[in-house]
Specification:
single chain; 396 residues; alpha/beta; TIM Barrel; Lyase, Ornithine Decarboxylase, Chain A, domain 1; 2 domains; 8-stranded parallel barrel; 6-stranded mixed sheet; binds pyridoxal-5'-phosphate
């Protein structure tokens, strides 16, 4: 599925380079697979930079975004020569200049802009909104559009090359017209940045935010219609020599291929409510609760059995919020040791979850490719819990 998604994107957006947003699923096998297919890496931390470099990524195929970067992270990015640090404030640009001076290494930046206009709608289904807007209002992300002039005045041209701009408006967008309108705003913004900064823009990182359907009434994006419309918007830039157009995507590439699996430990009925209690919960898959997204789930080893009741699928954690699916269809023959699979779990599943809560071993990860299973992350051990900890006896 990942390969198909990547190839479909390539075909629909031939002028764009596809960068994979590692935060969605940073497993080395997944990032490595996308790297082999030709994806760049969009990173958001020093840790992700480390992983990308371990995989042998060319620094020119790495962009670094994030509203709070430490000096150490900026240093690493500059020393490694990433294509662009997406600066998100005037102070960050100043910090970059200072660090670049100290290191004696020039740096490249792109301006991440918080546009004045955001999206009209993002996603959403009957069970609640999927709003993940990051621009268009007050935001910790990016530089407010109206503050660009001040930034132009403070820019140290000797140290920092401004290579372009970055606009990431929202995640999980399922409305084609909104994406096209967003592209139009971004293209107009690029011309404005050129005028204000007095240099030609060499790259536009248009973010992306392409969503995946979670609810029946949501339709998948039609790339064959979306791609050409977005390509058309950026046509004037495409024609410039050496110009880089970037799409950075996480969930669109990896969400739908992932299934979060846990094993049934207990079946309960309490005052009219049914519970299927498994060995994995929000410690490994918090997304449904945190982002208020309803994920479909099923008893994976009984897909042919008919559902006779509805239950809450929960983990073993000591909190009532530990629910991975609140309407699991339960077959009549469900039994202890069955497997519950939660779908659409390939993005922001494990990577977003508070795995240390209750000190359960971390889950294994299995990549299924061509009908074969490959263990790509070993299950954790209890001993791992001691890692990096120090006992401090004598305080009692
Ligand atoms: C700056 C930036 N780029 C890319 C992404 C990836 O978004 P998605 O997984 O929706 O494609 C995010 C998600 O938070 C982001 O903040």
């Amino acid at each position: 599925m990942i390969r198909d998604r990547f190839r479909a994107l390539r075909a629909a957006f031939p002028s764009f380079e596809i960068f994979y947003s590692m935060k969605a699923n940073p497993s080395m096998a997944i990032v490595g697979l996308l790297q082999e297919l030709g994806a760049g890496a969009e990173i958001a931390s020093g840790g992700e930079l480390f992983l990308a470099r371990e995989l042998g990524y060319d620094p020119l195929d790495i962009v670094f975004a994030g509203p709070g970067k430490t000096d150490r992270e900026l240093e690493d990015a500059i020393i490694n020569g990433v294509f662009a640090v997406n600066v998100e404030s005037l102070r960050e640009l100043e910090r970059m200049s200072r660090i670049s001076k100290l290191l004696g290494v020039p740096a490249r930046a792109a301006l991440r802009i918080n546009t004045t206009v955001g999206l009209g709608k993002v996603g959403g289904g009957s069970a609640g909104p999927l709003h993940e807007q990051m621009a268009g209002g007050p935001s910790k992300f990016g530089i407010d559009e109206e503050k660009l002039q001040g930034l132009a005045d403070a820019w140290d041209k000797r140290r920092i090359e401004i290579v372009g701009l970055h606009v990431y408006t929202a995640s999980q967008i399922l409305h084609e017209d909104e994406i096209v309108a967003n592209a139009e705003r971004t293209a107009a913004m690029a011309l404005r940045v050129e005028e204000l900064m007095g240099v030609p823009v060499q790259s536009i990182d248009f973010g992306g935010g392409l969503g995946v359907p979670h609810y029946e009434e949501e339709k998948p994006l039609d790339l064959s219609s979306l791609g050409p419309r977005v390509e058309e918007v950026f046509k004037p830039f495409r024609e410039r020599e050496g110009f880089r157009l970037i799409l950075e995507l996480g969930r669109f590439l990896v969400s739908e291929c992932g299934v979060y699996m846990s094993r049934v430990l207990e079946l309960k009925e309490s005052r009219g409510e049914r519970y299927v209690i498994t060995d994995g919960g929000v410690n490994q898959f918090i997304r449904p609760v945190l982002m208020k997204v309803k994920h479909q789930a099923a008893v994976i080893n009984r897909l042919d059995s008919e559902g006779v009741a509805t239950a809450k699928a929960t983990g073993p954690l000591c909190t009532p919020i530990d629910i991975t699916c609140d309407a699991l269809s339960v077959p009549g023959d469900i039994a202890i040791d069955d497997l519950i699979g939660v779908f659409n779990a390939g993005a922001y599943g494990y990577s977003m979850s508070p795995e240390i809560f209750l000190s359960h071993p971390t889950p294994s990860e299995v990549l299924v490719m061509g009908g074969k299973m490959h263990l790509i992350r070993e299950r954790g051990r209890h001993e791992d819990l001691l890692l990096n900890q120090k006992r401090f006896p004598g305080l009692g």
